[in-house]
Amino acid sequence: MRSVTKAYRPISWPTLGAGGDTGSWRVHRPVVNHELCTKCQFCWVYCPEAVIDRKKITIDYRYCKGCGVCAVECPTGAIAMEKEE
Amino acid sequence: MKRVYNLKQEVEKPPRLTGGHRLCAGCGAGVVVAGVLRALNKEDRAVVTNATGCLEVSTFMYPYTAYMDSFIHSAFENSAATCSGVEAAYNALKRRGKVEGTVKFITFGGDGGTYDIGFQSLSGAMERGHDMVYVCYDNEAYMNTGIQRSSSTPRFARTTTSPVGAKNQGKKQEKKDLTDIMVAHNIPYVAQTAPLGNFKDLHTKAYKAIYTEGPCFMNVLSPCPRGWDYPMAKLAEIIKLAVDTCVWPLFEVEEGVWHLSYMPKRKLPVEDFLRPQGRFRHMFEQGNEWMIEAAQAYVDQRWERLLERSGA
Lengths: 85, 312
Fold this sequence. Notes:
The structure holds two protein chains of two kinds.
Chain A (H helix, E strand, L loop, with lengths): L3 H4 L5 E2 L13 E5 L9 H5 L22 H5 L5 E5 L2
Antiparallel strand pairs in A: 2-3
Chain B lengths: L6 H4 L17 H11 L6 E6 L3 H6 E2 L2 E2 L4 E3 L6 H17 L7 E8 H6 L2 H10 L4 E6 L39 H6 L5 E5 L6 H12 L4 E6 L3 H4 L6 H10 L6 E4 L2 E4 L10 H4 L14 H22 L2
Parallel strand pairs in B: 1-4, 1-5, 5-6, 6-8, 7-8
Antiparallel strand pairs in B: 2-3, 7-9, 9-10
Helix pairs in contact in B: 2-8, 4-6
């Protein structure tokens, strides 16, 4: 019996950064202060972009658009928004 | 099966919506979609159908997609019909033993593609009883094409087609109550929710909707920083205000039984929700106090009706 998964090949590729390097849209850059961070992962949950590393709490600046939601949501104020150079 | 929600456990799952899509910075839709897809069990696959809208144009740039699951998009008005067709095809293949594992069917539509344009196909799919979930991410206007009014836009809101000036003061009509209309379809599960707090409400409702047999509908509030005209970092604050002022009450209807999911500790005046948003700025001008009163009266009336229905 022919398997369906073999009969059809995917024509699209799920990938990180499907929209290009969206980090170039950024005006303000979120910077994590790891001394204050308690790794509650709230920033990760609220990030509309899913660019925060859940374990290390580091931000992928290639795709981060700098919306600042993480900085507002951080309960300890460990994320600061700094103006892009 | 009753599941206890634990955010730390849920986030262990690999994300199903990747970063680097083209949604605006601070868009609520990304949070909503990631939150709904997180409710899927790890081993299950999903077919995501999308109505045309912000979400579709920004997450699916052929041949790339930001979804780790299968994705299908056909047209603006027929996302629910497309999804029901895929579901029927899956059932036929499953009967012949040609597909393995569980596949779930999730449709995402904006308010334009759900309240207005896609309404007939949504109504039809719900009536036919397909095993699918329709998730409406409600940002209260046609944001993709430049903030035109939709039937979901609340009264007095400024959009490009309901402008504010000497002759006109924002949208004249009230918002259509789509969740009520979906309840009237007598489907197994209808919910109104928002990504609030630790996402417990969104997550549990999404889980129920996905794993309840038969057609289910979810209406999720998704703020739009461009159209609502508020600072983009305040996404969660706006959602919290919408829920606490009872503008967007959280409830679910299971087999026709209404259940209130969240009772605000203190019901805030509707002004608190309106004030941070530029689209309601004209309501705070001199001589426009009646608008706030009218908005408050409308919210109160609907809230009373909801309390009555849910027996809270």
